[in-house]
Amino acid sequence: AVDLEVQALSFSVHHGVDFDEHQLEQAALKQIRLDINDDPRLNKMLLAPMQGWMHCFQHFAEDEIIQTQVYQQVLEPLNLRFCSAIQILYDHKVCIMLSFLTSTERGVLSCSELQPIYELLPILKQKIQQYRHHFEYSTMTLLGSQLIQKMNQPIAIINLNGDILELNTEAKQLLENSKLIQIKQRRFVFNDSSQQQFELNLIELERQHKRHHDLSYAERSKIMMVDDHLFLTLDLLSPEKTHKIFGLRPVLLATFSGLKHKPKYQREICTQLFMFTPVEHKICEQLLEGKTTKEIALSHDIQADTVKKHLQAIFKKTKTHRQSELIQLLMQFL
User: Per CATH, which fold does 139-257 belong to?
Assistant: First the structure.
């Protein structure tokens, strides 16, 4: 399904052959992140209402298909080549379609093979019309969309393929004045290293969501440094209905921190709450500065393993389990 107003894609995969689940998961993650204009078959289905089936072998030359990213990255690794698709619903707002993919060995589906599906279309159309709101993008249905507009901290709501769904006023002001972050085609654009980390975080959060529905806070959150003065925290917002209703995916709360000055470690607060030793205080301060375990060890002229032992003591006192979770906690006191 594609929301035609905002070009938002959603899909579900069902298979009748023995696919490797990990391979299928990787294919789905790649599919959702590809440019929607990459696939000529999808573009044809989105142009206008169509009657009957669209068979790719009838409408496109083989070169038009095999040179696309969706074929090379998604379909070919799964040994899928041919597509037969039909529109279930098409209007000014949304296009919802059903497609069948087959391998080269299996060959194209014949009209007689597709006839039973065609006979079911009236029932399918009725059900899809009833639940069409699950395929339509609306900021009013997003968890926290109204709340972020009331907050003074720069916050965005994005989906798991990085599309920006909503920005509050503070975030818009940040992006207007920032040389570190730009928006292109409704997505954040960072420098190369930050961009790679950002995309890896998105993939990891979606993988966690698909595998485990009951995630701890640490598993639902990723934190990254854009530079010495700017942190970005990604929190997975996963309402219960995302697991029960087809077409819905969770969204992320993207929160920017430490914008106006270098984050200042709150030693007194941490002393009162956690009773850190002087060395533990210094390690926490350096973590907030973005230093690695190795860099911290060099600054103290100690072994990296010693720093890790201190970190284990800090984790125990703060009831955290990893550095990203600890930094997230410390940033709450900035």
Answer: Beta-Lactamase (3.30.450)
For residue 305, give the 3-state DSSP assignment.
helix
CATH architecture of 267-331: Orthogonal Bundle (1.10)
- Which amino acid is residue 19, in one-letter code? F
pLDDT tens for the 334 residues of the chain, in order: 888 877 777 777 777 777 777 777 677 767 766 777 888 999 999 999 998 899 999 999 999 999 998 999 889 989 999 999 999 999 988 999 999 999 999 999 998 999 998 889 899 899 888 888 777 765 544 445 555 666 667 888 888 878 888 888 888 988 888 888 888 888 899 988 889 889 888 888 888 777 665 666 556 778 888 876 788 888 877 554 444 444 456 778 888 876 444 557 788 888 888 899 999 999 999 888 778 888 899 998 899 999 999 999 999 999 888 887 788 778 766 6
What ranges in the chain are assigned the alpha helix state H? 21-33, 40-47, 56-59, 62-66, 69, 111-130, 145-148, 169-177, 192-211, 267-274, 278-288, 293-300, 304-318, 323-331
Domain 2-135 CATH (choose: 2.20.25, 3.30.450, 3.40.50, 3.10.20): 3.30.450
**Is the pTM for the entire model greater than 0.85?**
no
